[in-house]
Amino acid sequence: MIRLAAALLLCLPAVLTAKDAVKPPESKLYTMDNDYFSCVIPAAWKFTRDTSYEEEDGIYGIELAAPNSGKAPALIFVTYYAPGNSDFKGHDDFLARNSKNSLGETKSPTETYGPVKKAEVGKSKSKAFSLARERKRFLHPEGKSEESVVLRETIYVVPAAKKGGFHVLHFSAPKADYGKYLPVFRRLADSFKGV
Q: Is 23-194 CATH 3.60.15.10?
């Protein structure tokens, strides 16, 4: 009996203490101009917003880049595509063009696209669509280097109920770092509120 108890103790995983747990990054609430969307964003991530073509193109968005994330950073994009925007006719057009490669394939030697699925996003459980994909990207496409990285991506497309148009929440990270940064994206998506 004592041998059995000793064997069970050796098989039990180590118990994590509070100091061993991974602490979520500090965050802050961000609200896009005209209240197009709001969400909680990681405070330490690099924030970028290019306002120069927003009104003209009808596309309003932010980019967040993880700190110290290696050769290819983990990125989160949150974008509102207004009705009549310059890129997509609507959320169906976005999904059709982003759920397969330019040849219409869902699988190739460098790309894999999962099916579009129904989802819910944000505090209000807004109806959305999700898709996942993996794509090989060369780090120096303008040079002779063959150095590349496989990016794993999750995309939520949320039709905008009040003002028309749609929102896109896009998470991209090197496959090896995907799990490390996914909780940050989930927190943002869970806090998302669109127009």
A: no
